[in-house]
Structures are given as structure tokens and as C-alpha cells.
Design goal:
With 589 residues, the protein is of the alpha/beta class. Helix content is 66%, strand content 10%. The chain is built from 22 helices and 10 strands. Helix 9 runs parallel beside helix 12 (292-325) and helix 11 (238-289) runs antiparallel to helix 12.
């Protein structure tokens, strides 16, 4: 029931309505199945003893009714009865096929729906959330655990309901024919399966935990091995990563196979018992009725009912085992989605409109990273005038990047605020402010796409402004390289993470990207560290030309990079030590 409640939580309100419709279809399918199986008894009875048409009140009444439609003798009545039984079976099978189609589509759309919820939930988390998350774990949850929960929990749950209702309907039918035999059969199989499940459920939960843990290790190994292919090849680390993957993949495969074996093993034992039981039922009915002919209709009913009942009971047991095995994965999705829901409740609504014309102000800022031992920023107060060029300097860990991340709106300080032209940045106007910023990080992310698509990052290919691409590429000192050395020009595919480019070429693409949307503020976070001195001077000369119209914020370790700034801020151990003209700050350092 705990797993059932958590699976129900994963459904949206519209999906819960669809699940209810599917449940109604399953109930109707079970009713048709029961009628189909039940219609065998009168047909076989009349077939073996046609005289019952005259002596049995029910059959005689049906015969008299059918005579109104031209049925004149017993032979015609048997034929009509056979056609009716055949029609019921065709109707039952057709409706079962329709229900199965609805069921399969519902399940597959659930995989899409839950995956989409996770992607939306993860991407809408604050930046600090990602600082403590592994990208391989996120990818594994979306691409693998959702599939596992659908295949090993949602599907078995629906199968359990479907098969359970069908089995119950057949047992009810058998009870109406012979209460004693039906109770013996129903209780024997049910209790046997429950005993087996009782002893294997702890093992299933244990191997489910192992599967979840080793699936994460599999994804992490692959992510690291191929994400750092250069380091792996240079360091000769191939065997280490192969072993990391193969060990976890083996445990993962063993866990899956063990759960399947546990789910299927009782089937073969009970099939043997069931076929042996047919003979016992036959002997019992002969002893009860006195003749084989009288026993035949009931025995035929039980044989046919067993043919339908055995797979249903086995499937119910198998569904219980799969649900237990998938329990850890269900818990993982449930915990993620329930926690993400709280975090995304106050996500940015983008109601405000920011017009940056005067100043960027950081007022009494204090920031502590989650689970960090020391404060990253302490009592930071600084003002950046509009259309100025400012530089941040200081040793590694002094807080330069943290200040920039607060200006970017990625981090929310525990104390103080960020204000633009005196207006405090909140969730309501954050997106408006961020649209005014062009950001160049030290490590540029490049997708396996064209140079043009990477510069106009996130823009549909059809909507890319080719003239703007060339304009910003010239500023970033990228255009000559693209125009003279690449055969496909801006349509050249650069490979995953830009593996076909040098570090400097990647950074120039990052600079062009930051300029593409014509932002009011350009932030360069060690953005020229991979450039040679000559290229850096050319790029910075072009960027400095933009300072008449834009505000430029630079983090750099090279003094020459910030020498031409209007203001330099010096930080150390999270504090603002000094600020002023480059001549003042640099001469004192």
C-alpha cells in the first residue's frame, strides 16, 4: 500500500481520471471473461445431454424464447447456443484487446509524464541545488529509474489489478458451481503464493537497493570515462573505468535476473500441481454424480477456468515481487518529486521589468555555501556604475566568482540584497534582470552542433541571425579563424564539448555567445585565461570599445586584463579589502 500511494502521487489529476477509466474497463473485462467462462457449462451440458432442454426449467425457458426467432428443434437450439458462446468469447477477447491497448498507452505516457516532471523540477531548482548534485545521478534518475519504475512498478500494479479482478471473478463463478472445490482451489493457491512471497520479499527489497546503487555507479563511470576521454587516454586509465563499469553492471544485471527468477519460479511448481488436480477433480465429480457423462460439463468448466485462472494468479504473485523489487526506485522518484515540488513553488514569475541605467549595488552581502566550513562573503558593499568597466582581483577562494554569481542572480545571499537602480532583485524580476546579462564563464559548455548554433545558444536554427553571428564573432576575434580555416564556415560541427577546438577557440565562442543577444551587462569570469597574450589583447581591445554602451565586469588573474578598467575591487577571504582606480590598486599590489 505504501508503494501504491507513492505511485498514485506520481500521477497528475488528469492521469488519475484516466486511471479510473482504465479501472472501469478492467472491471468490465473481468465481467465479460466470467460470462465467457461461465457460458461453457450450459453449452457442454446440453451438448452431452440434449434432453435437458426439455427437463431443465432455465434451458426450457431460453428454448421457448428462441422459438420466437425461428428456432424449432433441439439441434437448432444447440447451434444457436454455440454461436452465442462463440460471440461472447469474441466480444471478451476484442474488449480485452482494447483494454490492453488503453493500458499500454497509459503506461507509456506515464513514462513521458514522469520524465517531464523530473526535468522541469530539476531545471527549476535554484543554482545552489546543483552544487550538491551529480549530473550522472540526475541523468540516471530521468532516463533509467523512470523506465524501471514504469516497467517494474506501474505496469505490475496495473497487471495486479487486472489479473486480480479476473481471478476473483473466475473464483466467484466456480464458487457458484461447487463451493467446496472453489474454496479449496482458491485458498490453496493464494496461501501458497503468500507464503512464498513472505519469505522472498526481504531478499527482493535488498536486491532492489543493490540495483539502484549500482545503476548510479554505472552511469557515473560512463559519464566520467567519456567526459574525460583525453585524461583517461593520457593516464592509461581505460582498465580502471572498464572495471568500475563492469563490476557495477554485473551486480545490476544479477539483481534484475534474480528478481525475474523469483517472480517465475513458483509457476512451474503450481502448473504441475494444477494438472494433477484436474484428475482429482474428475474423480471427485464422478464419485459425486455417479457417471463420467454427468461429470464432464463441470470438469470441462474447471479445466477452462484453470486455463484462465493459473496465469492470473501467477501474474498477481509476479506483480507483487516486481513491485517489491522496484520499491527503492519508487521511493527515489517519490522523494525527488515531493521535495522538488516544494522548491519550485516560489520559482521566478518574471513579473517585473528591469531598466538598468544607473548602478548595480550589492548591499551588506553575506553568503555561506551549503555545508561549507567558512563564510564565502562577509559584509560586501559595492556599487558598479552603468556603462563602466570594473575588474575584480584577489587570490583563489577570495570570493570573486561568488560575487559574480550573486550579480547573475544564481545565488541568493543569506543577508543583504542585490539592487539595480535601487530596485531590489527578487524572484518576480530576476528573469528580466538576467536577460540583460551576457555571461562568459571560464569553462565554456559547447554542444555537439554548429559554431553558429553554439554562439546563438538556445535559439532555433531557423531563427539564428547570421549577421549578428558575424558581428559578435569579429568582436571575439573568431571570425577570421572561421572564415579562412573552416570549410563549412559557421555551419561546421564542433563535436561534443567542442573537442575539435582549442581552449582559446572555445573561449572566443563563449565571448561571442555572451554578446549575441546584445546585453546591457557583460560579465567575463576568467573568460580570456585560455587565450594567448596577443589574442587576449585583441579581444579585450574590442570589448573595451563596447564600454561606451555596456557595463563590463571582469574577473581575471592577469593584471594586464584589468589594467584598463575604470574601477578595480580587491577581495580576500570573502571581504572587500579595497577599491579604486587601477593606478591606485595595482601600484599598491
Amino acid at each position: 500500500m505504501d508503494i501504491f500511494k507513492k505511485l498514485l502521487f506520481l500521477l497528475s489529476p488528469s492521469e488519475k481520471k484516466k486511471a479510473f477509466i482504465l479501472l472501469m474497463m478492467i472491471l468490465l473485462m473481468a465481467l465479460l471473461d466470467m460470462i465467457g467462462v461461465g457460458s461453457i457449462l450450459p453449452f457442454i451440458t446440453v451438448l452431452s445431454n440434449p434432453d435437458l432442454i426439455e427437463t431443465n426449467p432455465f434451458l426450457n425457458g431460453v428454448f421457448n424464447f428462441s422459438s420466437l426467432f425461428g428456432v424449432k428443434n433441439n439441434q437448432q437450439f444447440i447451434f444457436v447456443l454455440g454461436v452465442f458462446v462463440f460471440f461472447i468469447f469474441i466480444l471478451s477477447i476484442s474488449f480485452k484487446a482494447l483494454t490492453n491497448y488503453v493500458q499500454v498507452r497509459f503506461i507509456q505516457m506515464m513514462e513521458y509524464s514522469i520524465g517531464k516532471k523530473l526535468v522541469e523540477g530539476y531545471l527549476h531548482q535554484p543554482f545552489t541545488w546543483f552544487l550538491s548534485r551529480n549530473s550522472a545521478e540526475i541523468g540516471k534518475t530521468i532516463l533509467s529509474e523512470v523506465d524501471h519504475v514504469i516497467g517494474k512498478a506501474m505496469t505490475p500494479l496495473i497487471d495486479l489489478i487486472t489479473r486480480g479482478i479476473a481471478a476473483f471473478a473466475i473464483i466467484v463463478l466456480l464458487t457458484m458451481v461447487d463451493f467446496k472445490i472453489a474454496m479449496i482451489i482458491g485458498l490453496s493457491f493464494s496461501i501458497s503464493y503468500l507464503i512464498i512471497f513472505y519469505y522472498v520479499k526481504n531478499l527482493l527489497n535488498e536486491i532492489g537497493e543493490k540495483r539502484l546503487k549500482n545503476n548510479e555507479i554505472r552511469f557515473t563511470s560512463i559519464n566520467e570515462a567519456f567526459g574525460a576521454a583525453k585524461e583517461v587516454k593520457v593516464g592509461g586509465l581505460e582498465e580502471i573505468y572498464i572495471n568500475n563499469f563492469s563490476n557495477s553492471a554485473k551486480i545490476y544485471a544479477n539483481s534484475n535476473s534474480t528478481s525475474l527468477i523469483i517472480a517465475q519460479l513458483p509457476r512451474y511448481i503450481f502448473e504441475a500441481i494444477a494438472f494433477g488436480g484436474i484428475f482429482l477433480i474428475l474423480l471427485y465429480m464422478i464419485a459425486k454424480t455417479g457417471t463420467f457423462g454427468d461429470a464432464l460439463p463441470v470438469v470441462t468448466l474447471y479445466v477452462f477456468a484453470g486455463y484462465r485462472l493459473m496465469p492470473s494468479i501467477q501474474q498477481v504473485y509476479g506483480s507483487f515481487t516486481q513491485l517489491t523489487f522496484a520499491g527503492p526506485s519508487v521511493n527515489k522518484l517519490y522523494n525527488d518529486l515531493s521535495n522538488l515540488k516544494k522548491l519550485t513553488a516560489n520559482k521566478d514569475q518574471d513579473k517585473g521589468l528591469i531598466n538598468f541605467d544607473e548602478t548595480i549595488s550589492l548591499n551588506d552581502i553575506q553568503y555561506d555555501y551549503p555545508q561549507a566550513s567558512r563564510t564565502a562573503l562577509k559584509n560586501i558593499n559595492l556599487t558598479i556604475p552603468s556603462k563602466s568597466t570594473v575588474g575584480f582581483m584577489g587570490p583563489t577562494g577570495s570570493g570573486k566568482t561568488t560575487v559574480v554569481d550573486i550579480i547573475l542572480g544564481l545565488l541568493t545571499p543569506q543577508r543583504g540584497n542585490l539592487a539595480i537602480d535601487g530596485e531590489v532583485i527578487t524572484n518576480q524580476n530576476l528573469r528580466s534582470w538576467q536577460r540583460s546579462i551576457g555571461y562568459v564563464p571560464q569553462h565554456i559548455f559547447l554542444s555537439d552542433d554548429t559554431i553558429a548554433a553554439n554562439i546563438a545558444f538556445g535559439v532555433d536554427h531557423e531563427k539564428i541571425d547570421k549577421e549578428m553571428i558575424k558581428k559578435v564573432s569579429k568582436i571575439a576575434n573568431l571570425h577570421d579563424f572561421v572564415d579562412t580555416e573552416l570549410q563549412e564556415k559557421y555551419e561546421t560541427i564542433i563535436g561534443e564539448r567542442g573537442v575539435r577546438l582549442s581552449g582559446g577557440q572555445r573561449q572566443r565562442i563563449g565571448i561571442a555567445r555572451a554578446l549575441y543577444n546584445n546585453p546591457k551587462v557583460i560579465i567575463l569570469d576568467e573568460a580570456t585565461s585560455a587565450l594567448d597574450i596577443k589574442t587576449e589583447k585583441l579581444v579585450m581591445a574590442e570589448i573595451n570599445k563596447l564600454s561606451k554602451d555596456k557595463t563590463i565586469i571582469i574577473i581575471a588573474h592577469r593584471i594586464d586584463t584589468i589594467r584598463n578598467c575604470d574601477i578595480i575591487f580587491k577581495l580576500e577571504k570573502g571581504r572587500l579589502l579595497s577599491h579604486g582606480l587601477p593606478s591606485e590598486i595595482l601600484n599598491n599590489n
